[in-house]
Amino acid sequence: MGAHTLVTERRTDYRVTFVVLCLGVASFSLLQSMVNPVLPTIEQALDTDQETVTWVLTAYLLSASVFTPIVGRVGDKVGKERMLVVTMAALTIGSLVAALAPTIGVLIVARAVQGIGGGVLPLTFGIIRDEFPREKVSGAVGTSAALLAVGGGVGLVLAGPVVNALSYHWLFWLPMVMTLVAGVAAAVWVPESPERTPGRINVGTALLLSAWLVALLLGVSQGHTWGWTSGRVLGLFVLAAVLLPAWVLAEARSDHPLVDMTMMRIPTVWTVNLVALLFGIGMYSMFAFLPQFLQTPDVTGYGFGVSVTESGLLLLPQTAATFVAGIISGALAHRFGAKAVLVAGSALTAVGTLGLTLAHGALWQVVAETTLLGLAFGLAFAAMSNLVVDAVPQSQTGVASGMNANIRTVGGAIGGAVLASVITAGIRPDGLPVESGYTNAFGVLVATSALAALVAAFVPVIRARTHVVPGPQAAWEAEHHPEAADTAAH
After folding, report:
1. Are the beta carbons of 170 and 58 closer than 8 angstroms?
2. 129, 293, 431, 441 from 296: Cα distances, Å
3. In angstroms, rounded to a whole number, what is the distance separating the alpha carbons of residues 211 and 471?
4. pLDDT tens sequence for the chain (490 residues)
5. How far apart are CA 131 and CA 126, in angstroms?
6. In 10 A of CB 89, how many CB atoms?
7. Is there a contact between 481 and 135 (Cβ–Cβ < 8 Å)?
8. C-alpha span between 88 and 118 (Å, rounded)
9. In principle, which of 236, 347, 383, 420 could form an S-S bond with 341, CB 3.0–4.6 Å?
């Protein structure tokens, strides 16, 4: 357990804190998704080529994957509010540089700086667990987790209109304003963590973690471009295969591990992380390929020939369903348990992708199926986060939820790479994929989603022993929930 810090000052109302946290998560989520649909515009504006412009996405992916667990762990040690301000500052500075970037190289660097903001989600979960009344935690975690998926959908909707009305630079100006406001608000209103983990930051294991993640994700993300059997890709996979066990061994032997391997072996944690990997394959792949599917010209016999803006609007019901599911997930988890919600979300994902596989010839079918997927994403996202947060000691909330988010990202990268290869396995004379490419890709997602539901059914539900931090929050808990002062150990 972490060291206790006596908290005597009056703490900000948790509802104010929640508004600030949601603003931070939403701004990070928008930066994740708004750039994707306008890469051709950026390619033309900055006079570069398709292979180079994809690094605008790759740099962000690599940076976020590295910094999400590291920032979460640093927050556990030095203070979550302090690190939340740091992540908002990184997003603000990165957005400013990106908006003003004169060359593609500067833009890629700016996107790497923005990736530091990946730590906002684990920090948010940690602050919620520190500051919120116990009965409000699951709902708040569910809503903030769903916001990440919602932002992905909203970004697809906004990208086209923003670029058409203003320019692609405003895809960075608008989130910059949000992160600046969120950073100032966090510094003023979000109370500092009453819970700290003692010990130093293990730089060596942080570097090993970064190295194997970059090697794996770079190989996966560039495999389709460089060739899966190319020396560069195979070399990266071999490097990842060597560095991953080296990192695990180093963490296990460390007196001050960055990621506690004992915590990672908690049955609930590792099984939910496996679900996260499988779920990430489906969810992030849908975000990437559904707009592309909708925008395929109707002369192909299966596409709908809609514009970037229209494809975003068609997916808006999916985004709304995700948000609604995130809001109600807390109540559902309270009544049926977070495990049941996770199983339901994963199973609904399999049903939705099966629908897309069998029936995608009319727009109403696609909208209905993607709306069901949105509901599934919101339920599963929230349930995964709640299960992990509940299963670990309070002092490890940040790093545990950061690793869970990171594993979803790895799943998304793997899914995107695999589906890109499946979709482009058959190409028409005009260079567009044949319909069977999408059908087969949706079929792959049916299998991964069904497997996620199966694994979710075997997730053991445990709750870590918690302890009450002295101060006003403890008084609130003692007054309203005296029976919950110390939850039973698993």
Report:
1. no
2. 45, 5, 11, 15
3. 41
4. 444 444 444 566 778 888 888 888 888 888 777 787 777 788 888 888 767 887 888 888 888 888 888 888 888 777 888 889 999 999 999 999 999 999 998 999 999 999 888 888 888 888 888 878 877 777 787 788 777 777 777 777 788 788 888 888 898 998 899 889 988 988 888 877 666 666 677 788 888 988 988 898 888 878 877 888 899 999 999 999 999 999 999 988 887 777 778 888 888 888 999 999 998 887 777 777 888 888 888 888 888 888 877 887 888 888 888 888 888 887 888 888 889 999 999 999 999 999 999 988 888 999 999 999 989 988 888 888 888 888 888 777 777 877 888 888 788 878 877 887 788 777 888 778 888 888 998 898 899 999 999 999 998 876 654 433 333 334 433 443 343 334 333 3
5. 9
6. 18
7. yes
8. 10
9. 383
Residue 3: how many CB atoms within 10 A of its CB?
11
CA distances from 312 to 47, 152, 290, 359 (A): 26, 10, 10, 20
Token pair belonging to 393: 């000691």
Half-sphere exposure of residue 31: CA atoms within 13 angstroms, side-chain side: 39
Q: Are 114 and 60 in contact (CB under 8 A)?
A: yes
**Closest-CA residue to 412 (of 288, 319, 294, 228):** 288
Is the pTM of the predicted complex or chain greater than 0.85? no
Could you tell me how many residues make up the chain? 490
